[in-house]
Design a protein that fits this description.
This protein is α+β, with helices and mostly antiparallel strands and 176 residues long. It has five helices and eight strands. 27% of the residues lie in helices and 26% in strands. Strands 1-2-3-4-5-6-7-8 form an eight-stranded mixed β-sheet, with helices on both faces. It binds coenzyme A. Coenzyme A binds next to strand 7, helix 4 and helix 5. Keywords: Acyltransferase, Transferase.
Length: 176
């Protein structure tokens, strides 16, 4: 076991064997635990989603429902889709999610970062973000953007994200 940093209650673990990890979550998945929770969590960009379970997760954070068929297409067109699972050999539970769109070469935008409220405040969101940035870096993407609601801006700022200065560079267009 490796402590990631002295103040963090998150530990990178190798409780699951490499074979088990790959079998359940696919290659390049990342396993860690929380000191108090005593549960194993895994970030995976490979493990397939049950779209109903994903829909339920996104509802737990209060987001409005989107048609499953459109979500399925959106995931297919995303360049990176990451699930954060609470490990269970038979019934792993999806407790976190995020996805990225982009050209796959130069730029990416992160969307839909969500942690089930039951598991918020444990450091999972931070681990999920680290995993995403690491995976984007692996494919050579160095410019990453995201849009944050006002109440979560400091979640990102704490992790080194810079706010777009004074709204002078960003433009939006909505169809309706
Ligand atoms: C935002 C969210 C992903 C954070 O996940 P989380 O697992 O609760 O966050 P963590 O426990 O990893 O917190 C990491 C750090 O950010 C801080 N933090 C967490 N949520 C925060 C928030 N809403 N505002 C400010 N800081 C926050 C924590 O205190 C912690 O600080 P520390 O590193 O100094 O200890 C989660 O609260 C969530 O899913 N919210 C609802 C959906 C949402 O708004 N998503 C963002 C879309 S832009």
């Amino acid at each position: 076991m490796i402590f990631r940093n002295k103040r963090s209650s998150i530990k990178k673990t190798n409780i699951l064997s490499q074979d088990e990890l790959i079998k359940h979550y696919g290659i390049n998945s990342y396993e860690f635990t929380h000191q108090e929770k005593k549960e194993i969590f895994v970030c995976s960009k490979v493990k397939e989603f049950d779209l109903i379970e994903l829909d339920q997760l996104l509802q737990t954070v209060g987001w409005s429902r989107r048609p499953i068929r459109r979500v399925k297409r959106a995931l297919e067109f995303s360049i990176l889709v990451v699930g954060l699972w609470r490990h269970d050999e038979k019934f792993p539970r999806l407790v976190g999610f995020a996805r990225c769109t982009g050209d796959g070469i130069i730029e990416a935008t992160i969307w839909d970062v969500a942690i089930n409220p039951v598991y918020q405040g444990l450091g999972l969101g931070k681990e999920l973000m680290k995993y995403i940035l690491q995976e984007l870096k692996k494919i050579g993407i160095s410019k990453v953007t995201l849009f944050a609601d006002a109440e979560v801006v400091s979640f990102y700022k704490r992790q080194g994200w810079e706010l777009e200065p004074k709204g002078s560079k960003c433009a939006f267009w909505y169809a309706n």
